[in-house]
Amino acid sequence: RTTRGDDIDAACGQLAGQVQDRTRRAERHRRKAEETQIIRVM
């Protein structure tokens, strides 16, 4: 039987991983958006 603390730590780790993935996706979209804006101006 595991303690509640271990369960909470595991949940926090999963949430942190998901948040990091989302920020990386946002960076990719920002880069693509910036590139397309530059092409449009030219």
Description:
- By secondary structure, this protein is mainly α.
- The chain has one domain.
- Helices cover 90% and strands 0% of the residues.
- It contains 1 helix and no strands.
- The protein has one helix at residues 4-41.
- The mean pLDDT is 64.
Helix and strand topology:
Blueprint: H1 4-41
- Rounded average pLDDT: 64
Order of helices and strands: H
Portion of residues in helices?
over 70%
Structural class designation = mainly alpha
Task: Characterize the biggest β-sheet.
Answer: none
> What is the first-to-last residue Cα distance?
64 Å
- Rg over alpha carbons: 19 Å
The count of β-strands is 0
Shape: rod-shaped
- How big a fraction of the residues is strand? under 5%
Number of domains: 1
Figure out the total of helices.
1
In the predicted model, the low-confidence regions spanning at least 5 consecutive residues are: none
